[in-house]
Design goal:
The chain has 144 residues and is α+β, with helices and mostly antiparallel strands. The protein contains 4 helices and 7 strands; from the N terminus they run αβββββαββαα.
Length: 144
């Protein structure tokens, strides 16, 4: 992402209050024992390479679900939705949408199977073949 685009997005983040205490990054609390928290996060595909990415607390995008920004109330949910729309308009990501997450003992987990599969990585192609070899014949996704 260019420096100019990042500056514009950071200004928009501040304007819509995304950096407020309403939102928090679950990975930052990894060392603390937490009770189960249900919230929402944003996922999308990065425009330049199609990779699955998650909105982070600094307004960037990460390929790791653990780095996602969690909205745990309606105000936070509206803010991350607004930011997702802005990121699409800036041609950084495509197909952004909000999904439910659960944070248990500092680990982030997608509630629905679709997002759990997206977080686990490719299910076809060379990357999936490597995963099948590594895990003994198939990719396994845990969705309680």
């Amino acid at each position: 992402m260019s420096v100019d685009v990042q500056k514009i997005l950071n200004r928009k983040l501040t304007a819509i209050g995304l950096r407020s205490a309403i939102l928090r990054t679950p990975a930052a609390n990894r060392d603390k024992k937490m009770t189960t928290v249900t919230g929402h996060a944003v996922t999308a595909n990065r425009l330049v390479d199609g990779a699955v990415v998650y909105l982070t607390g600094d307004g960037g995008w990460s390929g790791r679900l653990d780095d996602c920004l969690a909205a745990d109330d309606e105000a936070g949910l509206e803010r991350i939705k607004t930011f997702a729309v802005e990121a699409e308009r800036a041609h950084i990501v495509v197909s952004a949408y909000v999904f439910e997450i659960v944070v248990e003992d500092g680990a982030v987990r997608a509630v629905r199977r679709r997002e759990a599969i997206r977080a686990a990585g490719p299910t076809a192609g060379p990357a999936a073949i490597g995963a099948r070899d590594q895990y003994g014949g198939g990719c396994r996704v845990s969705v309680r």
